[in-house]
Design goal:
Strand content: under 5%
Number of strands: 2
Largest sheet: 2 strands, antiparallel
Strand order of the largest sheet: 1-2
Helix content: 55-70%
Distance between the termini: 42 Å
Shape: globular
Order of helices and strands: HHEEHHHHHHHHHH
Length: 203
């Protein structure tokens, strides 16, 4: 799909996508979750979804899946961080469909489930081989995980002074790219590698 075709689809579905965005933001607001230095968590969700808008044309073949892709992007942290269960999210997306959205509820919730970290004592345990195997096995999940990582990378270099997590993401990147699998579009990988280098002082 051409980028302009994808963006035309986005505009045609914009009202429903905004409904999804607001509902997801409310889930995080309800548990007082913030992002970075006290930003509303919606900041991260919007940033992750912006990469769906930028790169979605590389993975979307069927207009019927457009809102599903955005739903998974906006709700990707709700099971992990907003205290929703799998069934809670299923019910919420079903209600949003009744209000005018057109989400493949099962596909969206499965993608969110795949993106939800495992139980663990540290980052390595929470995102181990079983976690990445689940991502690789779930439609759209590798793409969405890369959207999430790009959002975090972008924020970590946004203000010119690299935050601590920028260096964590940079160190993790070789393993992350191997673990996420080969279905992530090359332009997204290029962008991730560029952001890994962004902000480093040159001699």
């Amino acid at each position: 799909m051409l980028p302009q075709e994808f963006f035309a689809l986005y505009l045609a579905h914009e009202s429903a996508i905004e409904k999804l965005a607001h509902a997801a933001a409310q889930c995080h607001a309800d548990v007082n979750q913030t992002y970075g230095d006290g930003l509303p968590y919606a900041f991260h969700l919007r940033l992750a979804a912006s990469y769906v808008t930028r790169f979605g044309h590389l993975v979307l073949d069927d207009e019927a899946q457009l809102e599903t892709l955005y739903a998974a992007a906006y709700f990707h942290d709700t099971l992990e961080d907003a205290r929703l269960t799998y069934n809670d999210l299923t019910k919420l997306l079903t209600r949003l469909n009744a209000e005018g959205c057109a989400v493949d509820v099962h596909a969206a919730v499965e993608a969110v489930y795949a993106l939800t970290n495992d139980k663990g004592r540290n980052r390595e345990e929470r995102a181990g081989e079983r976690y990445y195997a689940g991502i690789r096995a779930t439609p759209f999940a590798p793409f969405l995980k890369m959207c999430d990582r790009l959002a975090n990378l972008r924020y970590s270099t946004l203000f010119g002074i690299r935050q601590r997590m920028a260096d964590v993401y940079r160190r993790e990147m070789p393993h992350f790219l191997e673990a996420i699998g080969g279905e992530v579009p090359a332009p997204m990988v290029d962008e991730a590698l560029r952001l890994c280098d962004d902000g480093y002082a040159r001699p």
